[in-house]
Amino acid sequence: MSGYFKPNKGSNKMKIDSSFVGTPLKDYTTTVTWRATMNYAAAVGDANPVYFDDDGGKTIIAPPMFAVALTWPVSEHIGEYIDDKNFPVDIIKTQVHYTEHLAFHRPVRPGDILTIKGRVAAIMPHRAGTVTVIRFDAIDHDGNAVFTEHIGAMMRGVECVGKSRGQEDLPCIPSVSSEGGIKWEQVIHIDRMQPFIYDGCSNIHFPIHTSVGFAKMVGLPDIILQGTATLAFAARELTDNEAQGDPQRLKELSCRFTGMVVPPEDIRVQLIQRREHDNGTALFFEVHGKDGRVLSNGYARISG
What we know:
two-stranded parallel ribbon, 12 strands, globular, alpha+beta, ten-stranded antiparallel beta sheet, single chain, 18% helix
């Protein structure tokens, strides 16, 4: 659900009715390959052996953030998957990726045959327009849940008709306390080629990340790093620093996208709070670029 829209000042205001909450999406089925899972890990420089080492019959797994690559074919063509002829698909071009939440039920593995089921989970008015949330559930061949994704899209300048709907069914994210200080920080250099590498290895393609001409045409200063790539770098650091390198302990991951990374640029993944609970450890993090926060309200849950 990546995109960028430059509004036409002379156009009539577009609208979406909140009664579309619950609208189903057509199913999408895909087979996971080892090449795709390894490529995704390589895209963000994650050399964790569990993603690559199949020596002696070991079973490799996909990085947790690989989930976004599995749902991308639906997000990329969302207008074709919305199973309601009355849905105003023209407004989709106004959306930008606003929030991301992933719940991991078990690792994705090469050879998995997954069916992605989706629906419009929430439509909520916002001071900048309307936020629409799509829920994806990845189900394996045996009918078991593999991961659940909630993608929030900001539709700038789009009016929400009707009251907010679906918000009460969205994942509940704990709030960070006023406790100060940074627990740790990791600086990651994002070079000029990183958006191209992520594009090619993840198959998540949108031209604001790889076409300078297109990016400038829609009002951006240059190509920008994919938001899911920024989150994947954060997931890598959280796994290595807080889960002893075991990605299977990462049970939840979420954030809000609040800024742009324009390569070449250094980003700083910061853990700002850690809270122990009966069901694991809650981690609160941010990612900063040269002009401030690019990823806010970061939350992860690590099992014990």
